Amino acid sequence: MRAAFFGGIYNNYIGLEEALADARRRGAERLFCLGDVGGFGPHPDRSIESLRKAQVEMVQGNYDDAVGNAREDCGCGYTDPRDNHFARLSYAYTLDKTSAGHRPWLAGLPPQLSVELGGTRLHLVHGSPRQQNEFLWESTAPDAFLERLCVEAGADVLLCTHTGIHWQRQLPSGRRVVNVGALGRPANDGRTCVWYAFLDTEAETAPPFCFIPLAYDHQRLAREMRAEKLPEEFVETVLTGWWTTCLEILPSKERLRGRF
Ligand SMILES: [Fe+2]
């Protein structure tokens, strides 16, 4: 069984199209998206239409809940005024540009999903099983806490996104947590590619999950973002691979890997 897991699309429909094609080339039989279709990039309807057309199995992110229900903000939980300023700009843009016809679909997405693939029980969430917008970072989530989340969810593998940075860890019990990363923006590593997670239960490699770096036409995305008058700070991230906003959420270890 082969399956692909996409995190945070953030309106990067160009990266999403590339990821769908890439996953199919690799033989993915199931395609999953762990939520946050909107935010950051241009033309929100295009990502939604691609996901719906490809019948990607969805989990609802905080952004999908916010846009689908026309909430006041994106529910990202920023406190820094600068991050809040940029979060408001991208949320206002996405809310305004998402067709009314797509909103019930976003609002109705399941907040969690349990599936069994090749005998492994997977539990898919956006942030964490206990909170849609909880950040699970590699450097700050202790094994015991992650074990508890897996046990409570009845899962061999817990998959999440929301942070924008991919990582995975095998726990002492043999259970595993996989943050699948994000298709919507680079992983703050100075590379312009974006990432998704791929499972091959027949693979001889261990672990059976790997992370796929995905090159896409980021220059085109940047041009379209500028044409839509999205903040130049966002465009810079797409062109350089370094985060320029939303830095407050990064724990110190993850932040030290970045430029800002
Ligand atoms: Fe999120």
Tally of extended strands? Answer: 10
CATH level 4 superfamily? Metallo-dependent phosphatases
The second-level CATH architecture is 4-Layer Sandwich
What is the chain-wise order of helices and strands? EHEHEHHHEEHEEEEEHHH
Main β-sheet description: 5 strands, mixed
Name the CATH class: Alpha Beta
What fraction, in percent, of the residue positions are helical?
Answer: 25-40%
Tally the helices: 9
Distance between the termini: 40 Å
Task: Give the C-alpha Rg.
Answer: 17 Å
What is the CATH third-level topology name? Answer: Purple Acid Phosphatase, chain A, domain 2
Structural class: alpha/beta
Main sheet strand line-up: 3-2-1-9-10
Q: What share of the residues does DSSP label as strand, in percent?
A: 15-25%
